[in-house]
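Input record (one chain):
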Amino acid sequence: MLPHKQIRLKIGALIGLTVSIIVIGTLFYHYFEHFDYIDAFYFSVITLTTVGYGDLHPVTETGKLFTILYIVVGIGILMAFIDTLSQRMVKNKIERIEQRDQKRSGSNTTTATKEAKIAAYRAEISTLKADIDKEHQK
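The corresponding structure, as predicted from the sequence alone:
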């Protein structure tokens, strides 16, 4: 997995690419397919997310060819973005689990240390009692 800094940079780059591809699609569909800006934006988003309601579609050959390229490139970018986000989420989850386990094992070590000290004190007390008993027997 990538370190946090590299993942953040990759996420930033993919956000930039995603926004750029949507803007490019919106402008293309506005100028070449004569969709108004809202419809062009809407069509760009539903095309990249593969929803495709069918209410809008390109009618020119240029628009159809662009849409094919737009889908291939755009879906690749979105898949890379989702993959990177999921890597980040998994890495964060693993780190939280490791931190929790370290805290738990740290408290167990503390408990084990305390138990060892108590056992050592008990042994010392037993030794002192034995010494006292020897002194009383003399």
